[in-house]
Structures are given as C-alpha cells and as structure tokens.
Amino acid sequence: MHGKRQGYTLVEILAVLAILVVVGSISVPIIGSMLADGKARAAADELRTRWSQSRSKAMSEGRSYRFAYQENSGKFRIAPDSPEYWSEGGESVDDSEEKAWILESELPGGTEFGTVEDGDHSGASGSGKWTHKATFQANGTAKVIGRDGQDAELSVKIGRPGTHGTTLKLSGSTASVSTSEGPRP
User: What CATH number should be reported for the domain holding residue 167?
Assistant: First the structure.
C-alpha cells in the first residue's frame, strides 16, 4: 500500500533551486540592460525637451542660447550665449531689463554624455569644464560648434557605460532633433 507523500526529497529541492539559479542568471542581466536602455531613452527625451525650450526661448527673446555639457557626466547647462553667463565660476549676472533663463541640470537615471569624438571643445574628459556644442539662434536655427555651416549635425550620445546608448542628432539648419539607439562608444 502506498500512503500519502509527506514532502519533497533533497534531490527534488536541489533540482528546483538549480533551475531557478540558471533562469535568474540568464534573466537578470537582460532585465538590467533593458532598464538601462529605458533610462537612456528617458534622458534623451529630457534633453530633446530642453533643446526645444532653448530654441523657443531664443526665438521669443531674440537672443542666442548656448548648450554645453560636461563630458562623461550627466551635467548640462543652457544659458544666453554671452561671456558674462559663461565665466569660469559659472556665476550669472542679472540682465538690466529682466533675468535670463539659465538652466543647469543633470540627465536622469544616472545616464551620462559620451566622450566627444570630434569638433572644437574646451574641456578635457572629466575636467568639470563645460563643452560648448551648440547655440540656438534667434532665427530658429542652431549653430553646431566645431562644424562648418548651418547644415551640420551635432550627435550626442547618452547612456551608461557598458550598455546600449541613445544618440540625439541636432540639425543646425532646422534645429530639429532625431533619435537613434545603438552601441555606446
């Protein structure tokens, strides 16, 4: 006669645990990568919004706004394209008529700007200096720094080291932005 089974054997428990460990070791990196890519997309959306605000401010106020960031960090700054707003100390001055729009912020989710691969930039990697990459003009265009002509494009890579990143491309002639995903440099 067979009676009711009272429990599981040690071999059965170990087999289930081994299966859970294998499934976990496969799924955790995949889920982590998907979350990091989602954070890069969210950071790209944030930057796209800020660029749009910069263009709108430049057009409505009739003055240019500069976009700069610190390489290998998530810090960026937008302020009028005038020396008094870009001094070494980063201190701004008051306008005689009204205060200028100045934004110093950081990309969300621990994401960062990739290393600048080309163009004229003043700050060395990790130096904490602002790398000036674009100026939004009062006529609705953007001047891409380090490139010849208004039709140049600025590519900015955003992401976390070791993950796929998101690249934003700013067209100088229209100040429009496109987004693509791909490997990070």
Answer: 3.55.40.10
